[in-house]
Amino acid sequence: MSGRSTFEERLPTISLFRTLLVCQMPQLEILPPDIARRSISRREIVLPLDAAIAAVDWCATNRIHILGWEGWVQSPDGRVGHGNAPQGTTSLEDLSVLDAADFCRQTIRAAALEWTETYPKTTDRLHFCITVEARSDARP
């Protein structure tokens, strides 16, 4: 094996980035204000664990397709980045709205637990960047 990934292996990631580039509206606009105001980003859905789960639940209830999530960390001085955060998912576009939401609930909770156990003395705060589909034709 050459160590290079094939085009087919990269398709889910390429598709997710294509969706992100096409989507021009701020992702936060799809959430209710009480959840959206907890985001550490003004455009993207980047929430602490409890708010991230609330956002996933809200998306499922409102038939908004979650395409994936990735971990972000915020340091005590306010800097934000990926650092030692969980990698997250690849594209979930082939799952139904409800299956994607269920998968995100499970993997976000598991990643938060593992991160907390791996870095018990960190002063960083873990957040979850959730990417949603902008189109209204998501599958139930």
In short:
The protein is of the alpha+beta class and 140 residues long. The chain has helices at 7-22, 33-36, 49-61, 97-118, and strands spanning 45-47, 66-74, 80-81, 125-132.
CATH-level-2 architecture: 2-Layer Sandwich
Structural class, by secondary structure, is alpha+beta
Overall CATH class: Alpha Beta
Main β-sheet, spatial strand arrangement: 1-4-2-3
Number of strands: 4
**Uncertain segments:** 1-24, 136-140
Distance between the termini: 39 Å
Q: Estimate the global geometry from the Cα principal axes.
A: globular
Main sheet attributes: strand count, strand direction, barrel closure: 4 strands, antiparallel
Q: What is the number of domains?
A: 1
Radius of gyration: 15 Å
The chain-level mean pLDDT equals 84
Determine the CATH topology: Ribulose 1,5 Bisphosphate Carboxylase/Oxygenase
The helix/strand order is HHEHEEHE
Helix content: 25-40%
Q: How large is the count of helical segments? A: 4
* Strand proportion: 15-25%
Keywords:
disordered C terminus; four-stranded antiparallel beta sheet; 4 strands; alpha+beta; 140 residues; 4 helices; Ribulose 1,5 Bisphosphate Carboxylase/Oxygenase; 16% strand; disordered N terminus
